[in-house]
Amino acid sequence: xxxxxxxxxxxxxxxxxxxxxxxxxxxxxxxxxxxxxxxxxxxxxxxxxxxxxxxxxxxxxxxxxxxxxxxxxxxxxxxxxxxxxxxxxxxxxxxxxxxxxxxxxxxxxxxxxxxxxxxxxxxxxxxxxxxxxxxxx
Length: 137
Fold this sequence. Notes:
This protein has helices at about 5-45, 55-70, 75-80, 80-90, 95-120, 125-130. It is mostly helical. The chain has one domain (about 5-120): MetI-like (MetI-like fold, Orthogonal Bundle), CATH 1.10.3720.10. Helix 1 runs antiparallel to helix 2 (about 55-70) and helix 2 packs across helix 5. The longest helix is centred in the N-terminal third of the chain and has 39 residues, at about 5-45. The protein is elongated.
């Protein structure tokens, strides 16, 4: 039962790991919302029947989001090693883990935003449709 580590050392190790996890989650969540929210709104408004129809933009952004959602996280983690090294300067540690966590979460959050906006009653969106209408109408 004695592994050479006291309860005090074990609790310190758990506390440090918990702090690093909270740090990664908070930063990754911030950037996921910062990028994923506008992306989800773009997906919603650019639909063929959306506020600002842009089918080509919608198809392109939708394909990128679907590609990101379908990629396993481990593959994404390995594929992003050069980008992580370029942005952070290293591929090790909790700060380096923020990049793949964020880029892995953005597509999912964008689809959640799009689905949430799709569930809003169309009567509630009428002012936005009127705001986006061409001025000559």
